[in-house]
Amino acid sequence: MLVTRDCYIEAREAVARYSSSVDVTVDPKDVLLCSGCSGALDLCITALANPGQNILVPRPGFSIYRTLAEGLGIKVKSYNLKPERGWMVDLDHLEEQCDEDTAAIIINNPSNPCGSVFNREHLFDILEIARRNFLPIIADEIYEHMVFPGKEFHSLGSLSLEVPVLSCSGLTKRFLIPGWRMGWIIIHDRNGVFDQEVRKGLQRLSQRIIGSNTLVQGALPAILKNTPQEFYYNTLCILQNNALVAFEMLKNIEGLRPVMPEGAMYIMVGINMEHFPEFSSELHFLEQMVTEESVFCLPGQCFDYPGYMRLVLSVPEEQLREACHRIANYCARHFTINSISSYLVQRKHSQP
């Protein structure tokens, strides 16, 4: 296949069509192709923030935000998500983190690692905080189409009338093709806030390297247009079914607190460490679980959220069930009633 500049233009046009909806029409001139979604995030952070400034990132959140920012001398401040409210943003805490050195807010929806999907009203609340504080948003929306039936995804760029939004996405997750290195940035800027500097900066930064995979650029229009809807539907059904299986099995295990996801491909599970006193942290807990049961889960520390672990839901159901059985056996062996409860039980049994 001969790849020419026409392929690049056609690829941008294809992304624009793919990303347009009844709420927003994307112009190809607002699309930048990048080397994966992580490359798109790198360009956005670099373009919006200077060394010494800070960006706001979710906690728990994908660790690459901190890695990219701190490598550029940009500070990172975290705002909390609320597990008891399905990992919605703690809006008061988000606004408290905004200061004169804040350059941008990163919003990850649907979320890695939480699997949460923000509703329309919650996104408007986030946009209002950004508007009041004159802050642009970097929207990490790589899981935009991976929302379970019954839930609905709303792009921040489609809702924002005033706040400029850089939306980052790509092929990797929905099309299950990690390594193809095809991502993009869509500039949503109804009032031209980015016209003087940011748009030019993004374009120049995108030319520091050769760019996104040129072969995939040539194939991109066909990939986005011709992939059967059945493929997407089957993928979502598998992920939702696995989420339900994991949640139902894990919620009955003493010492664990799973939070049911609404999209993406992960489930976060709280570990009541007071019931596992032999372990110093969830990392220690999970290291021993690998040793005893050969089940590996990422510790919450990877997402700046100790006391939790993240399970991946993209494995075959049989393997997922086996993993959950092994987790149950492991927890049963190590679970201990906490000291207060133990004291009350002993006192009750010692009474005549």
Automatic annotation (TrEMBL):
Listed EC numbers: 2.6.1.5
Keyword entries, A-Z: Aminotransferase, Phenylalanine catabolism, Pyridoxal phosphate, Transferase, Tyrosine catabolism
Cofactor: pyridoxal 5'-phosphate
Catalyzed chemical reaction(s): L-tyrosine + 2-oxoglutarate = 3-(4-hydroxyphenyl)pyruvate + L-glutamate
Modified residues (N6-(pyridoxal phosphate)lysine): 173
SUPFAM superfamilies: PLP-dependent transferases
GO molecular function, one term: pyridoxal phosphate binding
PANTHER family the UniProt entry points to: TYROSINE AMINOTRANSFERASE
UniProt family annotation: Belongs to the class-I pyridoxal-phosphate-dependent aminotransferase family.
This protein's name: Tyrosine aminotransferase
